[in-house]
Every structure is written in C-alpha cells, then in structure tokens.
Amino acid sequence: MDTDSGTDHEADSGTGHGTRSATGAWHLTHDLGDFLLRAGDFLRSRPALHTVPLTVTETLRTRGARVYGDGEPEFGVLERDGEVRAAFFRTPPHWLNVTALTPAEADGLAARLAGLGRPLPGVSADRDTVAAFVAAWQRRTGTTAALRQRQRLYRLGTLTPPRPLPPGGPRLAVRADHALLVRWHDAFAEAVGAGTVRDSAEWADARIDSGGITLWETPDGTPVAMAGTGPRVAGQVRVAPVYTPAHLRGRGYAGVVTAEVSRAALAAGASEVLLFTDLANPTSNGLYQRIGFRPVADFAVYDFA
C-alpha cells in the first residue's frame, strides 16, 4: 500500500488512519503486530467464520512475512465508535480476504483501495460480502470479475468415522515423506484450481515439523491419502488439505484420513474442527457430511481481470 503521509494514505511508519465516514474508518498497515493488536479480539470473537485470517496470520507470525509470496503482506481494520467492525488481509500476489461487510462498508473499502491505485487480483469472502465488494470494485475501477470458486465452510458436529474402514492405518508424516508431500501438495493445488498459495517444499517442512499431516497407508506401508490440519488458534483447527491420488479414489481413503485428523484435533483440545469444500464437488460435500461435518456459511472467490 502507499506510504504517503496524510489521512487518506498510510503513514511513513507503515500504519495509517482512514477518513471518517458513517461506516467507520479503515486503518491500513503492513505491520502484523499492529493488525493483531487492533483486530485480534474481533477475529477471535467468531473463530469459525474468521478461520482463514486467524490461521494465515498465525502462519505469518511463526513462519515469516514472506511465507505466502514475495510481496509484503497488507492488512486493514475497520473501526467505528471505538469498535472493530471488520478486517482484511492480503498476501501478495494472492487475493484480498475480507471478513463480513455491509454493502455500504464494502463500497467504502472498494473506494479506499481503488484510491491507492493498485489492481487487485481478486477477492475472497462470505457470499454476501463478496457480491457487494465485487459490484463496488467493478463500479469503482471498471474491472471485470469472474467467479473462480464457490465454497462452503463446515464445522464438525458428532464425528462418525466411515464404515467399513479401508485396510491399513494412519501415521504422521515424517522427514522421509517430504518429497511425497511436495508432489501431493502440488497435485492438490492443481486439482482444486486455486493456485498454490504457499511454496510446497516450505509447506511440507512446516507440516512435518508440527505433526500437521497424517497419511493413510495400506497394510504394506504404501501411502494412499493425506489430510492436514493447520495451527490451533482461538480453539479452532481447520482441516486442509485432503488429497488422494486420482487412481486411488473411491476406496474410502479420504473419509477415513479426514476422520482421523479430526479425531486427533479434538483429542488435542480443539473446540471446533472446520473445513472448506468446493461446492462444485458433490462427492466431497457428501463425504464430509456423512462423517459429521455440518454447514456454517457459504463463501466465494472471484478473479479480477
């Protein structure tokens, strides 16, 4: 974001003060600590709906500011009458991710960001917010928008492992699995069509170090599927990614490995276990519901030309 001083731009220190309006003032910053100081309690107040900013900012805090790309992360907090109303983050070159906004707040954010003079590659938010922001951004910039993906956020209710279980069992991924995890992470990113938002080798290192990937392997020790979990923040843990190579699908591996990482997250103290699905994939949506996940909210991702 711009570093010009003044009320409409960031200050030279990397923080800024927005102009006042009926919807509040946006405070923009590159400083993660400043962002979390202002928005942390707000994000933790609704940990399920805010799972993405909670987990992304925790990863930035623990793995470094450039873990998602070479660009400097950008953050914003909407404040009105001393209360935080909304927040956003972006890890260039990736999409803007924003919490729930009213149409007026979405228009105000679009106006503020358009005034900075830099294009956005796209936006991700809950269904109503993303529709309002896309309309405002197009109106403010003349940019065209295309729907990339419709998503549904699920929360685990009563865990019901699939029956019968496929042969084999779970184990945590270890250093010897690094090359396999890199290949599978690349394949997963290509399959879901959302682009790799993190270097696969770095991602594999981090997940192995944290015990955050479980493999399902056959009785002869061959890995056939994986499921991962992110860091526990504000009591919530999000399952991602879940991947089975194409030639091994339809055998129950995805369901059983997802159930296993969910069970382990609960046993380790998580109060909520969450996951996102692509609504264009009825198979995965049906699978997760059968093992106990229940819909929370719908989201969408749009690309801007």
Task: List key phrases describing it.
8 helices; disordered N terminus; 305 residues; 27% strand; 12-stranded mixed β-sheet
Number of strands: 12
Helix content: 25-40%
Number of helices: 8
- Give average pLDDT, whole number: 92
Order of helices and strands: EHHEEEHEHEEHHEEEHEHE
Order of strands in the sheet with most strands: 1-2-3-4-5-12-6-11-10-9-8-7
Percentage of residues in DSSP E strands: 25-35%
Secondary-structure class = alpha+beta
Specify the biggest β-sheet. Answer: 12 strands, mixed
What does the radius of gyration come to? 20 Å
N- and C-termini, Cα separation: 20 Å
Provide the low-confidence segments as ranges: 1-19
Which geometry do the CA atoms define? elongated
Commentary on this structure:
The protein is an alpha+beta fold and 305 residues long. The protein has helices at residues 32-45, 51-63, 103-115, 127-141, 178-192, 200-210, 253-267, 282-290, and strands at 25-29, 74-80, 83-90, 96-98, 122-126, 145-156, 169-172, 213-217, 223-229, 236-243, 272-278, 293-304. The chain has a twelve-stranded mixed sheet with strand order 1-2-3-4-5-12-6-11-10-9-8-7, with helices on both faces. Helix 1 (32-45) runs antiparallel to helix 2 (51-63) and helix 3 packs across helix 4 (127-141). It is elongated, with a radius of gyration of 20 Å. 38% of the residues are buried. Residues 1-19 have low confidence and may be disordered.
